[in-house]
Amino acid sequence: MMEINFLTESDRVGWESLARGKDTYFEVGRSDDDYERTWRRLLDDEQVRGIAARVDGKMVGIAHYVFHASVWYAGRCYLADLFVDAEVRRRGIATAVIEWVARDAKEHGFPGLYWNTLEDAPARALYDKVGKFHEGVILYSADHGAVLSGVLDTEGYSALAAVRNAGVLHGAEDSDFVVGRP
Q1: Which residues contact 84 (CB under 8 A, 6 or more apart)?
Q2: C-alpha span between 145 and 25 (Å, rounded)
Q3: pTM for this model (two decimals)
């Protein structure tokens, strides 16, 4: 049986294992302080949320999402991270997590759910079924300080709060949304 619910203090070990698995998969390096800061945000911030998917009581998936204002639309919800253990993929867990996040966002006044992924991500097979792909939309991000010097950092790929239906980019802390390198 699958259950999805908010992360609690007792979930730290399982959450961190999956979060580190996600970062390993996307080749993202983070410090122990990064995990601690993110964990505190997920538990203490009303706009930043974390959930866990469990199968028969075992945590097998996590998602992190952020509620935020929008200039032209009702509130938005950015699905920053979604990761399911490789051993249980293709069993409907990621779909259930996306539906859960969408429902939570709508219930709290943030009905516009969106996310981004790498172009060659295997998860696109699912995302193409449950979301709307925006052909021709290009995402830009800037390294802090590099804009002033005119030099952009091409080493990392950042998902700064990404693209909305109208193509409006809303900023966020770059370190909040690093998802991997192309």
Answers
A1: 53, 60, 61, 93, 94, 97
A2: 28
A3: 0.75
Tokens read off for 29: 């390096």
Q: How far is CA 171 from CA 12, 48, 104, 141, 176, in A?
A: 28, 15, 23, 9, 11
92 CB-side CA count, 13 A: 6
Q: Letter for the amino acid at 63? A: A
Give the least confident one: 12-16, 42-46, 121-125, 143-147. 143-147
Backbone angles phi, psi at 141, to 5 degrees: -145, 160
Quick one: pLDDT band at residue 158, thresholds 50, 70, 90?
A: very low
pLDDT, tens digit (0-9, with 9 covering 90-100), for 50-66: 999 999 999 999 999 99
Query: Any long-range contacts for 42-48 (C-beta under 8 Å, 24+ apart)?
Result: 42/7, 42/15, 43/7, 43/8, 43/9
Decide the pairing of beta strands 112-114 and 76-84: parallel
Of residues 166, 74, 149, 146, the one with CA closest to residue 112: 74
Scan for tokens 């580190």, then name that residue: 20
Strands (E), the chain: 2-6, 48-55, 58-68, 76-84, 112-114, 157-158, 178-180
pLDDT tens figures, 120-133: 778 877 887 888 87
Q: Is-contact 153 146, C-beta < 8 A?
A: yes
Three-state secondary structure call for residue 178: strand
